[in-house]
Amino acid sequence: MSKICNLETIPIEYMDDPEFTSKLKTLYLGAAAGSRRLYVNIDLAKPGAKSVKYHSHSLQEEFFLIFDGEGVLRMEGEEIPVKKGDFVAKLQAKELPISSLIPVQRFSRFLTTVFKIRTM
Question: What are the distances in angstroms from CA 26 to CA 80, 96, 108?
Fold first, then answer.
């Protein structure tokens, strides 16, 4: 059954670093709402933080939306400056590595959505 959730009342078990003492805090929205195949996260990142290592997915597509701040998106061997309002989709493919944002200069908040593709 679907459930309505609110960003202001996400249970602590659906957060990494709830007190935001490190450089990165993640809210696991998809899990909090009960999703099984759609990962929806909001990452709150301080300058210099990396949300993940450089990687790729062969069975997942990813989507990134920058809510606030600015940073560098490393994708397909390039470092691309991104800012508030920018968004990008990355299709599944082992040969297209991506690392999500590396915030620069100021605090950033961004949405990451990953859809896990079912294999038969």
Answer: 22, 24, 12
The CB density around residue 65, as the number of other CB atoms within 10 Å, is 17
3-56 tens-digit pLDDT: 899 989 999 999 999 998 988 888 999 999 998 888 888 888 888 777 665 556
HSE, side-chain direction, 13 A CA sphere, residue 89: 5
Backbone angles phi, psi at 8, to 5 degrees: -75, -15
3-state class of 105 per DSSP?
coil
Q: What is the pLDDT of residue 107?
A: 56
**Are the beta carbons of 43 and 73 closer than 8 angstroms?**
no
What is the pTM (predicted TM-score) of this model?
A: 0.76
Q: Mapping DSSP to helix (H, G, I), strand (E, B) and coil, where does residue 31 land?
A: helix
For residues 38 and 32, give the distance between their C-alpha atoms in angstroms, rounded to a whole number.
Answer: 11
Q: What is the DSSP letter of 8?
A: G
Whole-angstrom Cα Rg for the chain: 14
What domains are defined for the chain? 12-116 (2.60.120.10)
